[in-house]
Specification:
CATH topology of the largest domain: Pyrimidine Nucleoside Phosphorylase, Chain A, domain 2
Number of helices: 17
Strand order of the largest sheet: 6-9-11-7
CATH superfamily of the largest domain: Nucleoside phosphorylase/phosphoribosyltransferase catalytic domain
Radius of gyration: 23 Å
Order of helices and strands: HHHHHEHEHHEHHEHEEHHHHEEHEEEHE
CATH architecture of the largest domain: 3-Layer(aba) Sandwich
Strand content: 5-15%
Distance between the termini: 65 Å
Largest sheet: 4 strands, antiparallel
Number of domains: 3
Structural class: alpha/beta
Low-confidence stretches: none
Number of strands: 12
CATH class of the largest domain: Alpha Beta
Length: about 450
């Protein structure tokens, strides 16, 4: 029996609904999965029994594995209202034990789909986020494919950032791929760069994120459960985790980075996932482009070995790919970096990327940065000492990214560079005047650049 939890609104306008008809929103209609005109029954929903456990969590108690499993099962089945979801998220943000984090991760894996692969070694790479332009996955995955390691990369779309991996890859190829077609692509190409929403991997996580993001709640425990559950559900056996550390990154101190690493390692070990954690520089954006089209431009510049390709994006991607290749027993210890560099420099990674784009469905329309643009200039001469990652991301979002693929920010100079008074530091791109105006207003309040 198919069912959904919904709020019932009674209407008496025959222009909207005839007597005896029920109308659903598009998302609810898709979730129910019944054809138009199908007969349904309406009954008052009973409160989920697991809500009693949520109340105990609000009181500051630790929950058992079975209690968390029941809560996650009800969340994945959409039995919680947004208010109840928010109560659970806030309660967990206030206090959560390591054992609860592990139990939450297991429960999130158990209620969704799981992908399985006929290979002993399935590698993946993930960044915890917060750094604009850090689009290393689109370079790392083709390197893995060129080497022959299985790397089925399912990625998310942006929620609060200017672009996710799926948004940027969508500039070049289709990313909304059915599971059977995804399996065929991985069998042929050893990799894929697809949107994970179609797969229903750890679906409770998607529901929780819809509440966490507006509330700006992103605790270590919830982050660990979210990432590890998605990777285990995707069938990964080995994971390289990128944790950027910087004054405007998600993780802002070395002590917090170490604590987060230990929590990731504990949960990954108990979930049977081999994990390598890498701390990276989170002091400024990576590459030059922030926004789908601009980031895709940077990625292809690196893969094409263009002389003016962003060196920081290239170096970070090769370093992470090297750690992933070190998982391969056939590669001598510590030689992964050299192998990654070889695959990139020889053009093998580019060839693998072109095959992936064709397999997923190449986008024939060539997208360009937004035609409306405005340069943000230095108020005085000096050296750029820092760039606020969060501020740059907000400016790119205000310009229209990621919904407007061509919107974003093009960084013309980075930290450490000397600038003259009136010199352009970055360029805002937009496709609408409203988006450009909003972004410029935010940049004029605070450029995000610090000049000494």
């Amino acid at each position: 029996m198919r069912e959904i939890l919904a709020t019932l609104a009674v209407v008496d306008d025959p222009a909207m609904l005839e007597a005896g008809e029920l109308g659903l929103g598009e998302q609810a209609f898709q979730r129910l999965g019944l054809p138009e005109g199908a007969g349904v029954e309406i009954a008052q929903a009973r409160p989920p029994a697991s809500l009693e456990s949520v109340r105990r969590k609000i009181d500051g108690e630790a929950l058992s594995d079975s209690e968390l499993a029941a809560i996650i099962e009800d969340i994945a089945a959409y039995r919680y209202s947004h208010m109840e979801l928010a109560a659970f998220v806030v309660a967990c943000a206030g206090f959560m034990t390591t054992q609860e984090t592990l139990a939450l991760t297991r429960a999130m894996v158990d209620v969704g789909n799981r992908l399985t692969w006929d290979a002993p070694l399935v590698v993946d790479k993930h960044c915890i986020g917060g750094i604009p332009g850090n689009r290393t996955s689109m370079i790392v995955v083709p390197i893995m494919a060129a080497h022959g390691l299985l790397c089925p990369k399912t990625s998310s779309r942006a929620i609060t950032s200017p672009s996710g991996t799926a948004d940027t890859m969508e500039v070049l190829a289709h990313v909304d791929i059915a599971e059977d077609r995804l399996t065929e692509i991985v069998a042929a190409e050893k990799a894929v760069l697809a949107w994970g929403g179609r797969m229903r991997l750890s679906p409770a996580d998607d529901v929780l994120i819809s509440v966490e993001r507006p509330l700006r709640i992103d605790t270590m425990e919830q982050m660990v459960a979210s990432i590890i559950s998605k990777k285990v559900a995707a069938g990964s056996t080995h994971l390289v985790l990128d944790i950027p550390v910087g004054p405007t990154a998600k993780v802002r101190s070395q002590s917090d980075a170490v604590r987060l690493r230990k929590l990731f390692e504990y949960v990954a070990r108990h979930m049977g996932l081999e994990l390598k954690v890498v701390f990276t520089d989170g002091s400024q954006p990576v590459g030059r482009g922030v926004g789908p089209v601009l980031e895709a431009r940077d990625v292809m510049a690196v893969l094409n070995n263009e002389p003016d390709a962003p060196e920081d994006l290239r170096e970070r991607a090769v370093m992470l790919a090297g750690h992933m290749l070190d998982f391969d027993p056939a590669i001598p210890g510590g030689k992964g970096y050299a192998r990654a560099l070889e695959l990139l420099a020889s053009g093998a990674a580019l060839a693998a990327m072109e095959r992936l784009i064709d397999a997923q469905g190449r986008k024939m329309e060539r997208l360009a940065p937004g035609h409306l643009k405005h340069d943000i200039k230095a108020a005085r001469a000096g050296r750029i000492t820092a760039i606020d990652c969060e501020r740059i991301a907000r400016i790119a979002r205000q310009a229209g990214a990621p919904m407007d693929k061509g919107a974003g920010v093009d960084l013309l100079v980075k930290a450490g560079a000397e600038v003259r008074s009136g010199e352009a530091m970055y360029r805002i791109h937009a496709s609408t005047q409203t988006g450009l105006d909003f972004a410029c207003d935010l940049a004029n309040e605070d450029t995000g650049y610090r000049i000494a």
